[in-house]
Amino acid sequence: MRATIPSSSRGGVFTSLEQMIGNTPCVKLHRFATDHAANVFLKLEHFNPGGSVKDRTALGMIRRAEEEGALGPGMRLVESSSGNTAIGLAMLGAERGYSVCAICDRHLPAAKKARLFAFGADILFLPQTPAGIDTVQLRIAVATWLADAVPNSISLGQYSNSANPQIHYETTGPEIWEAFDGQIDVLVAAVGTCGTISGVGRFLKERKPSVQAVGVEPEGSIIFGGENRPYVIQGGGLSFIPSILDRSVVDRGLKVADAESVAAVHGLARAEGLLVGGTGGLVVEALARLAPEFGPGRNLIGIIPDAGERYLDTLYDEQWLNHHHFRERLPPRGSVDGELAEGATAIGCSLNHIPDDPGPSIAELCQRVGASPSVVANLAENRL
Ligand SMILES: Cc1ncc(COP(=O)(O)O)c(C=O)c1O
Question: Is the pTM of this model over 0.85?
Answer without folding.
Answer: yes
